[in-house]
Amino acid sequence: MNINGKHYRTIWIKEDDKKIVQIIDQRRLPHEFIIEDLKFVADVARAIKDMRVRGAGLIGATAGYGMYIAALEAPKNGFDNFMISAGNKLKNTRPTAVNLGWAIDRQLNAIKQSNNIEDKIKIAFETANNIADEDAEYCRMIGQHGLKIIRKLSREKKGEPVNILTHCNAGWLAFVDYGSATAPIYAAHDTGIKVHVWVDETRPQSQGAKLTAWELLNYGVPHHIIADNVGGHLMQHKMVDMCIVGTDRTTYTGDVANKIGTYLKALAAKANQVPFYVALPSSTFDWQMRDGVKEIPIEEREAEEVLYLDGLHDGKIEKVLIAPKGSPAVNYGFDVTPRKFITGLITERGVCKATEKDILNLYPEHK
Ligand code: MRU
């Protein structure tokens, strides 16, 4: 994505110091664009936990680079044990996005290929870059497959704008580039297809209002931010042509974990015959879990995120209490949408139904 004329990925190795990884602190967006250095595994763990970086793809890429940083930090004696414990530390930061464990295990397997420490560091560097490059390329391909669906809708609407509802941020900021749910939208916009996006605000952390809206504005895609409860009304009144959301973990049977509130949108979509698509790279499939509702771990975060809001006031970011002092709150980060509510999965290999059979046909190596 270009920001002020410069192309940025969401994570990269510092140009003049290959031992430093740089990220954009997403907690400060859309009001401040701040680049942060990560030098130690503890910095990487904090960045994931505090959600300076977030979104399944970017969490995975950050964990990949985190393992490279761990390799630089590891003592010569006890290198492998240090790497395993760094991997566990990173895995414990956030439980729902499966890309996290996937990237760490990929790194641990890769560095096993050599017994030489210098080689292991080199392998960790290359593997981190491969994970990031693959994430960006897979999202680009998701864009091309999803574009076909939007193009068809645009033809059916005789060129009138295609209204797409999305939840949370499954955009460039949630991946290394392009995004999953946003990639087809950007691809459509690039080819001149008229699109308009309904952006769910996505309380409590407002990733829709803060991040997705900022991305779309920056890319020039027409959009409106809506409060979280508006989608059902819009669907009832035929103001939504399709929904596209991302996912943090999708079982190989097609159940989708995504930001809290996704399930309610899927229910409203089903009731109003609005197609409901989920966009994901293969790194977000869980090839072990069968029953998403029963098995996917759902992150619970601080109640404070529900009780307070933050935003710009007089040029400064400030936090305000919106609930009575003393009222408790609970904060479930994700919910699971069962496969029967999903029209299709848009992956880097193409679009398939959210069923075990169709997913495994697309990814036969996991049969
Ligand atoms: O808590 P976050 O911001 O890391 O969660 C991100 C999401 O749930 C997004 O909705 C997204 O679809 C999944 S990440 C591609």
Structure description:
There is one protein chain. With 367 residues, this protein is an alpha/beta fold. The protein has two domains: 133 residues, translation initiation factor eif-2b, domain 1 (Four Helix Bundle (Hemerythrin (Met), subunit A)); 226 residues, Translation initiation factor eif-2b, domain 2 (Rossmann fold, 3-Layer(aba) Sandwich), CATH 3.40.50.10470. The protein is 40% helix and 19% strand. It is built from twelve helices and 18 strands. The strands form five sheets. Strands 8-7-6-9-12-17-18 form a seven-stranded mixed beta sheet, with helices on both faces. Strands 13-10-11-16 form a four-stranded mixed beta sheet, with helices on one face. It has a three-stranded antiparallel beta sheet with strand order 3-4-5, with helices on one face. Helix 7 links the parallel strand 7 and strand 8. Helix 1 packs antiparallel against helix 2, helix 2 packs antiparallel against helix 3 and helix 3 packs antiparallel against helix 4. The chain is globular and about 65 Å long. The two termini are 36 Å apart. The model has no long low-confidence stretch (mean pLDDT 98). It binds 5-S-methyl-1-O-phosphono-5-thio-D-ribulose. 5-S-methyl-1-O-phosphono-5-thio-D-ribulose binds next to helix 2 and strand 11.
